[in-house]
Amino acid sequence: MYVYDEYDQKILDERVDQYRGQTERFLAGTLSEEEFLPLRLQNGLYVQRLAPMLRVAVPYGLMNSAQLRTVARLSRDYDKGYVHISTRQNIQFNWPELAEVPEMLAELAKVQMHAIQTSGNCIRNTTTDQFAGVARDELVDPRPYCEIIRQWSTLHPEFAFLPRKFKIAVCGTEEDRAAIHAHDIGIELVKNSEGDVGYRVIVGGGLGRTPVIGVEICAFLEKQHLLSYLEAILRVYNQHGRRDNKYKARIKILVKAMGIEAFRESVESEWVHLKDGPTTLTDAEIERAKSFFTEPAYAEFDNTPDAELSAKADADPIFGNWVKRNTVEHRVNGYRIVNISLKATGYAPGDITDDQLELLADLADRFSFGEIRSTHQQNLVLADVPSNELYTLWQILQKAGLATANIGYLTDMICCPGGDYCALANAKSIPVAEAIQARFDDMDYVYDLGPLELNISGCMNACGHHHIGHIGILGVDKKGEEFYQVCLGGSQAKDASIGKILGPSFRQEDMPDVMEKILGTYVDLRSEDEQFLDTYRRVGIAPFKEKVYA
Amino acid sequence: MPKLIKNGAIVEDTSPEVLDLEQWLDCEERASRAVILEPGETLAPLLEHLNEIPLVMVNFPTFMDGRGFSYARELRDRGYTGEVRAVGHFIRDQLTYLGRCGFDAFQFDDESLLEPSLESLSDFSEYYQASINQPSPLFRRRA
């Protein structure tokens, strides 16, 4: 994991001081509400329906146990004892006091955490695969490149007042777990025929009101040019992105309006002046970044742990089921990747309490080299657990309500905080998620449905990524009443697609029935092992429509 | 005489007559006239006259419009060494960013803001990126 040196710490400490001064001026009345707004947003502070919300950055989803403990303590001292994991892998506090935020930021800075650019019209937290470095299908570890982008984008002087927010995701695997086609810029780490690492660059993807799948702007960018090329794209966007209408201000609208060829030409002609300049990456810098993401001291196992594991799983089917659903093969023999589901029925998806955070910090220290990851599906991951410790770990997780075996299934839904918290939302999303979880409490049925992504957003801003869920639910406002629109067939994988709207929207209380009809239609129509998305792609939307609106 | 911040100090404004981009390009005495840029204009026609411009003003109709940041950066990157002055509605909290993009002068509409704004010039002493006042990015300078 990246560790700050004196430079990183100095920049962060100076930012904390700057924000403290800004807050003081606002409270003293010498900084206007209008002028304070973007300043607090660029420090992650929203003013929500009931209280401010502070969004803390978790760069590419990576944390250590000390950071988790600080988050737990802050949630107790400054909040109500729980936090929320967001779809950008960040951590949100829901009830801090505006005047106390500088103090919270100072505490976070002590463990190398911050809230810089987690909101506002600037470059946001870069996200990546939650299994980076341990995935079996990984070609290149994305974390060093994410860290290079993090540093470059942090307090970038030219791009702090963009037309709109700007999100970058990176992946280095066969299976895209970072939804790179749904980002303003998506970067896929690839190798050319000589085996050199480079980047396939995707631009102009995004969700929100106008969902768009990003398109390729560069098939292979040599690795030293990463930052100058990003600067060229950002400069073209900063100069030409629309500023007259915030709903048309994202880069996807500009790319569509210009066409990818003309957009590429503009970027290239800007890049001519930046290419090979001081921002060109050096081998030394890439090596330095890589040096923070070396292998931990893995133990060497023969095949015994796996044999032991299957014996334990046979003896205790509940454990066996959890292993099957929530753990993933590790690159290194004798280890497993453990997903910790934050989607237990009866709890808001992605929420976690201070006690659970502290427990996980201890478990990370004991079983997983002191590190933990957050995922854009709003769960947590212990990435390096020896197989022979899984049973002990599972027993502890179970007692803490953290062993719900539903990763990748219907009830492991992505869900934004919605109208219960968010000032932007048109409708509540948590109660819909809970009603669906409660209806589908028969796990055998849920497993039988197979891998299924249900994504719920409380408004057009699409924080719950509803467009790219296999099933997406969107809260809409109809004359002051909350309704829910359903779309089908979205995908965030490499074959990314935008879901299609099923038809007129539904009342909240009808949503479990609607889900039952959609899923029943799938079960009737699927051929043997066919997954929901494949059935949908084969039969289209019509049969679902017929059943639901019959 | 109006005042502004220039090179880190409050000084009196001694700027020449100011023309908009089109007027400036057409003006025969342009070497003794300042040019003011508005967001959305293209810099291209100005780039071939960089050594003739005594002063470039960049107007911020609202501080949320960040196009002016790129103007300064481009002018400096292409070799312009004269004064680049921010005018209009920008805020003191933007001064370090503006300075790093190549602005060396700041003219607030409200002169009472000058004195307290000087403080904001030193909000940061270290940066990650290459910028006009620190042409080498941190990764090339790290010990």
Automatic annotation (TrEMBL), chain A:
Classification via InterPro entries: NIR_SIR_4Fe-4S (IPR051329), NiRdtase/SiRdtase_haem-b_fer (IPR005117), Nit/Sulf_reduc_fer-like_dom_sf (IPR036136), NO2/SO3_Rdtase_4Fe4S_dom (IPR006067), NO2/SO3_Rdtase_4Fe4S_sf (IPR045854)
GO molecular function: 4 iron, 4 sulfur cluster binding; heme binding; metal ion binding; oxidoreductase activity
Entry keyword set: 4Fe-4S, Heme, Iron, Iron-sulfur, Metal-binding, Oxidoreductase
The keyword 4Fe-4S appears for this protein: yes
Domain of life of the source: Bacteria
UniProt xrefs under Pfam families: NIR_SIR, NIR_SIR_ferr
Domain Nitrite/sulphite reductase 4Fe-4S: 119-273, 413-548
Domain Nitrite/Sulfite reductase ferredoxin-like: 53-110, 350-399
UniProt-listed PANTHER family: BLR3264 PROTEIN, FERREDOXIN--NITRITE REDUCTASE, CHLOROPLASTIC
Protein name (record): Nitrite/sulfite reductase
Organism listed in the record: Halioglobus maricola
TrEMBL record, chain B:
Cited InterPro entries: UCP030820
Protein's UniProt name: DUF934 domain-containing protein
UniProt cross-references to Pfam families, sorted A to Z: DUF934
